[in-house]
Amino acid sequence: MLLLIGVTFCFAMFQGGFLSWFLFYSFLPFALYSLAVFLYPMSDIVVERAFEAVDFKAGDELKVTITMNRKIPIPIFYMVLEDVVTESVFHHTTLQKAKAMVYPGFRKQIKLTYSIKELPRGEHIFSAVRFRMGDFFGVFEKSATVTCENQLLVYPSFVDVAYRPLENRYDQGLTSSTVKIQKDTTMATGVREYQPGDRFSWIHWKSFARTNSLMTKEFEERQSHDVLLVLDRETSATFEPMVTFTASVIRSIIKKGAQVGLISIGEDHVSFPIRGGEEHQRHLYYHLAKVRADSPFALGKVLQGEGINYQQSATVIFITATLSKRMVMSISNYAKRNSAVVIFLIKAKGASFTQEEKSLKAYAAARGIWVRPCFEGEFGSAFTEVKRA
Question: Which residues form the DUF58 domain (predicted)?
Fold first, then answer.
């Protein structure tokens, strides 16, 4: 650029005349501007990023505002801004990058706002902002990357599920539920004859003193409504609906005042105890926000290898996208522990319940396991007694 300035100046000096000096003075402002762009310190630019909200769930719209502040008011002809973010955030949109061209001019503050229509579930990292600027002729082009870290955690979406404790009958017949009945030992409702195996503390001593025969107190029976969810993390096209269904069931159970636990079987084996309350729900949702379909083995094989530890009074609900005979055989071991076992088979919207799956459903029912197909978009009626073809 300095050489071009010198050439035009020499041309004006030797050639003389109005035209040569007009070319020199016309070219000089553009040349000086190019030199100013070359000398402009990129460290003068400070970048901030802000989100419109704090908590997001899958499917929400995200609005991002990038604010660029600078102190030196050198006019900038153009600037290309690019928000450096993990590609997962654009999974459900047509955008590939958050990139745009702005024309700052003399402004010291520039704001750029863009939106992502449907946020995918997961953890998304906004690490930096990359910008590029240049002169009129394209002789000089400068670029820099400013670190501006933000972490966005998108929780799974949920729907309203009409949760009700599992009934004592399966839709295949009169097979009784084996949910363990808990006795409330704080209140006796009557007495009966002593039977071998009754606890020593249950003996009604006043009756024994009167009749000289052992009598046992009878207590009020309460049915346990605790639920343990087991999430299958094997790679599947319906994994996201499975996570949505799991989050919806957790929300509905806790809303009913019952307690729920979660076992997430994948590359890592994560277990949450059976508890209730909003804080416990936040812990479960945090895990579901980051969980991925990374199980290297099928659920049936994992159950045979590691097994599941849980209290026997809890209803065990398996959430999976595939049903196999090996899985049913593995799960049948848990049905023998005085617990109700249910398999929710999550299927895509518009999919059909195959003949093989119907056979496996009958095979499972014969072993005390309730298999329930659940189609995407119809999660609200998952716990109602509806037979599907």
Answer: 191-348
